[in-house]
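Predict the assembly for these two chains.
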Amino acid sequence: MVKKIFGQAYIWLILLLMYLPILVLIAFSFTTSTNVGVWNGFSFELYPALFKNKEVMVALANTLIIAVSAAVVSTILGTLGAVGAFYSGKKFRKGYEFVNQIPVVNAEIVMALSLAIMFAALPSVIFKADLRCYWTLLIGHVVLGAPFVFISVKPKLQQMDPSLYEAAIDLGAKPHQALWKVTLPEILPGVFSGFLLAITLSLDDFIISQFTTGPGLLSAGDPKIVTLSILVQDKIKKGPIPPVLRALTTIIFILVVLGVIGVSIYRSYQAKHIKKKVRV
Amino acid sequence: MKSSKPKFALFKRKYLCIPYGLFLVMFIIIPILIIVYYAFTDDNGMPSINALVGFFTNWSKVNVLITSVFIALQTTLLCLLIGYPLAYFLADKKVNKNAVLITLFVAPMWINFVLRTGATRDLLTWMGINGGNMPYLATLIGMVQNYLPFVILPLYTTMLKLDKSQIEAAADLGANPFQVFYKSILPQSVPGIVSACTMTFMPTMSSYVISDTLSEGKITLFGNYIYLDFANNLWHDGSFMALIMLVIIGISMFLTREKGGAEQKGGKSW
């Protein structure tokens, strides 16, 4: 009993400490002061101001575009790679998996630096200056996401019944039909969680974005794609978090909470479903 | 049987790995080779060990390495001290029946990392702990705050698999709670501890936003220095430091490959 009370108190205390900075930002998103800790009276002003702030909105749009496109590319490449490697010879597969593991265990800054130096050393013909930011940024984020898609698809292939594909071929399906109609549905959960992981990593990324976009890489005067992370880092270097970003934090937090509620509903639904199946 | 479908003989499923294979070569292997190249050449492209000599004779750079290792060790240790009992309680059905709680501990990762770091900085400044007066403490708090989820997740996964009957048997046979922990629970959770350490130690050493923001530029870690070298066009020096990082990672991977196991890495894929 003592253990239960102590354990629960500990869990909630750490949870509170982990969320405290975010909760404070949220509380102060309802006042217009420049600093956290100064209360200027209750107001909703920051919220309309957030949506009118072009800089933040552009950064947000960039972040979402990069995250979705990088996740799509990562998912396609990673899934194809996982399927292909799974049916290759053992030695080749081990080597392939080893290379795939490099970006997973490597320090992000090392990957970022190596990519940035390579892009900077490439002749500008390959990447036209105005497009260069986008492509280099996209490649950086695919390097971040694709290995995790590979890792989440691999176990699904191992669980799959290998004779399913053979049966489809024997029954007259062409390889692409068999892959699309038999293999893909079997590994879909892995593909999906890989996709979500790639989006999460991309949304959260700062270091790779910083190195694969920006003036360090491009000559002065070239455009630079600013993602949310780059924008926020630029601001907090000079001073406290700008007031409008406090409002943005609140909105992101609400979305995260909705996500957590969604996950828990899905889990309890799944649990009930399994119980029913077991009873039958 | 096989001769009856000659049309498909050209296609093999293993060919599907070609696009991603090319991608891996172009954007992972070649960039790393370029770093190795830059680490051991000079501005004229001639082989040189200037970067190596420069690194080990420059006391401030060696100092950065020592500081980074020190902060990374402290962060890992603190995260383990906080995260270990937490994971234990979360996995104990008597204490916590709610599986959603673990999602809550991972959820901060969905809020932008830089925004979170800024939030921590602003709160600490409000509390009077800032880069001006306590840069080291502020950095450490920020690190623990950020890397705690990475420790909780692998530990929680291991704790779920603890052999409950062995623990009960130990207690029944007269072991006191300390002995039960030391002789039964701790050895069983070693894989989780190892993978928690690898997921905290290296990222802490190479992180640069947290130390830069929370210490207001007063504490320079390995990651900061690599960035500074790159920003100042010192590619050779930066590449050499990145190479050192790569070697340290390689060694730690080699040392932990048995105990951590590949499945523990999957713990990251919540």
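Residues 17 and 23 of chain B are 10 Å apart (CA to CA). Chain B touches chain A through 88 residues (CB under 8 Å).
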